[in-house]
Design a protein that fits this description.
With about 150 residues, chain A is of the alpha+beta class. In chain A, about 40% of the residues lie in helices and about 20% in strands. Chain A has a single domain (about 5-140), classed as Sufe protein. Chain: A (Alpha-Beta Complex), CATH 3.90.1010. In chain A, α2 packs across α3 (about 65-80) and α3 packs parallel to α5 (about 125-135). Chain B has helices spanning about 35-50, 60-80, 95-110, 125-135, 155-160, 185-195, 215, 240-245, 280-300, 300-320, 350-355, 370-375, 390-410, and strands at about 15-20, 20, 25, 85-90, 115-120, 140-145, 145, 155, 165-175, 200, 220-225, 235-240, 260, 265-270, 325, 340-345, 360, 365, 380-385. Chain B has 13 helices and 19 strands. The two termini of chain B are about 35 Å apart. Chain B has 2 domains: about 5-30 and about 300-410, Aspartate Aminotransferase, domain 1 (Alpha-Beta Complex); about 40-295, Aspartate Aminotransferase, domain 2 (3-Layer(aba) Sandwich), CATH 3.40.640.10. The chains are: A alpha+beta (about 150), B alpha/beta (about 400).
């Protein structure tokens, strides 16, 4: 088994203990929900879209440390980005959590998610909030479920 | 507590290292491990007797048929059924309950009828009734669970009010797979019978853990799986009272269950064949008979006493951990051999991942009890469930691991 400290890095523990942008967003004009039926994890993302730009973003939900920290990191990294930029960041995050490899160094604090790839069962935990956020951003306020998308 | 460590020698799987530690298997509520005698029964069948049952005239088919029907008789004795024909082989608890919900539900449920169940059923004893009630235009009602942590068990006063003549069927679990609550099943059957309701018991969590007598309980149907009682996966039982089975239409049709077939139609054999269309799961049924032999050789009353001794120690040691919320019966109250709990600030999946690093197998999640979790204000719990081969030392390893986890997440 891989060392659990690779998975539970200090950045992850910090964001799990003190999630950023957690709670409802009063100014939200988009909302999307994600769930993982096999484990019961839930995530709702609230988002204010100003034109094509994510003006503000927050999340609510319950889940393991990986899912909570990843959602918290997601809000910090998507705030102020355009929808295509957000999609590009998620493409990097997806590559990171499935392969452990990063193309560029612009993922900064998100690099803490690199350990996830050694624990395939936890990839869905790390991507749930991101799927909900992209659904919200793309005006697709449906439930993102880990049973209907892959990672 | 009595020394049962020699029992562990019967279970080959227990003697391995997981992540560098001797395996501590505490996921028995999900599935139990298998003793050598059950594994041998499977191998022996495939090496010596494998053949199709009932219709063959050759030696192997006769042997296979005798062993298959012998297993039925063995299981009938295990649950004290009045007649082996009351034991139907299925894939497991879920299929057993679905057969009743579809066959009995289709024949008997009408608009205005009430199907009664409880607030703490496994999805397998909940969703089939939702479907059956919906199909018939009947109403599904729930007997409430008492206590903020579900510690009060079934609300029997509420049950008395809910049990009206409109109730056609009452389905309930013997032992809750999440809370560890043991329902007073004989009393529930008595109350249901008084209003003419048919009773269905989910015995998945009780069958391998304590003596069980369907005639003493007085149920109409009882469902269980082989794999939670030292038997193989893919085999289970639906017990049904003969008088009810004889009037019940088959759920599946095909070969083996028919008396006469013409181009115009078909007539059915009596139970149990009527409910076992196609080639049955012969090997696993035979091995389930071997599991009954194994459990009875140990003594199910002794297994129950061992379970109680373990869970008493576990409750005492786990209750002492800071920030733990244990659901189900309180310390000192009767409970089955499992403890389900939530830690403040640490999600169940993180607990299970860390325990696994210490070689300990636990279960974390909603335990197929989503409505119950919602009612208790939880999204998931961690469950440690014990069985006849677990030891006090293993509980100590669990406690030590949980302390490490709490320390890690507290920072």
């Amino acid at each position: 088994m891989q060392d659990l400290t690779d998975l539970y890095q200090s950045v992850i523990l910090d964001h799990n203990r003190r999630p950023r942008n957690r709670g409802k967003l009063p100014t939200a004009n988009r909302v999307a929900h994600g769930d993982n039926p096999s484990c019961g994890d839930q995530c709702t993302v609230y988002l204010r879209l100003d034109g094509d730009r994510i003006g503000d973003i927050s999340f609510e939900g319950s889940g393991c440390a990986i899912s909570q920290a990843s959602s918290s990191l997601m809000t910090l990294n998507l705030k102020g980005k355009t929808v295509p930029e957000a999609e590009a960041i998620y493409a990097d995050v997806h590559k990171l959590v499935t392969t452990g490899k990063v193309d560029e160094n612009n993922l900064s604090d998100l690099a803490a998610l690199a350990g996830v790839h050694q624990f395939p069962a936890r990839i869905k935990c790390a991507t749930l909030g991101w799927h909900a956020a992209l659904n919200a951003a793309k005006g697709d306020p449906i439930t993102a479920t880990t049973e209907t998308h892959k990672d | 507590m009595p020394d049962w460590s020699n029992v562990r020698a019967d279970f080959p799987i227990l003697h391995q290292q997981v992540n560098g530690h001797p395996l501590v298997y505490l996921d028995n509520g999900a599935t139990s491990q298998k003793p050598r005698s059950v594994i041998d029964a499977l191998v022996r069948y495939y090496e010596r007797d494998n053949s199709n049952v009932h219709r063959g005239l050759h030696a192997l088919s006769t042997r296979a048929t005798d062993a298959y029907e012998g297993a039925r008789t063995r299981i009938a004795k295990f649950i004290n059924a009045a007649d082996p024909a009351e034991v139907l082989f299925t894939r497991g608890t879920t299929e057993s309950i679905n057969i009743v919900a579809r066959s009995w539900g289709h024949a008997h449920l009408k608009p205005g009828d009430v199907v009664l169940t409880t607030e703490f059923e496994h999805h397998s004893n909940l969703v089939p009734w939702q479907q059956a009630a919906k199909a018939a235009g009947a109403t599904l009602k729930y007997v409430p669970l008492l206590g903020a942590d579900g510690e009060g068990g079934l609300d029997l006063a509420a049950l008395d009010k809910l049990l009206t003549p409109q109730v056609k069927l009452f389905a309930f679990t013997h032992i809750s797979n999440t809370l560890g609550t043991i329902n007073p099943v004989a009393e529930l059957c008595r109350k249901a019978r008084a209003v003419g309701a048919v009773t269905v018991i989910d015995a998945a969590q009780s069958i391998g853990h304590r003596p069980l007598d369907v005639q003493q309980i007085g149920c109409d149907f009882l469902a269980f799986s082989g794999h939670k009682m030292c038997g193989p996966t893919g085999i289970g039982v639906l017990y049904g009272r003969r008088a009810l089975l004889d009037k019940l239409a088959p759920d599946e049709t095909g070969g083996g269950m028919v008396a006469q077939v013409t181009y115009e139609g078909a007539t059915w054999k009596p139970a149990p064949e009527r409910f076992e269309a196609g080639t049955p799961n012969v090997a696993d049924a035979i091995a389930l008979g071997a599991a009954c032999d194994y459990l009875d050789a140990l003594g199910r009353d002794k297994i129950a006493a061992h379970d109680t001794a373990l869970v008493t120690i576990a409750m005492e040691k786990l209750s002492a951990l800071p920030g733990i919320r244990i659901i189900g019966p309180k310390q000192g109250a009767e409970r089955s051999s499992m403890v389900s709990f939530a830690f403040e600030g640490v999600h169940a999946h993180d607990v299970v991942t860390f325990a696994d690093e210490d070689g300990i197998a636990l279960r974390g999640g909603h335990h197929c009890n989503q409505p119950l979790m919602r009612k208790l204000g939880l999204t998931s719990t961690t469950r440690a469930s014990f069985y006849l081969y677990n030891t006090e030392e293993e509980i100590d390893r669990l406690v030590k691991s949980l302390q490490r986890i709490q320390k890690f997440f507290a920072g």
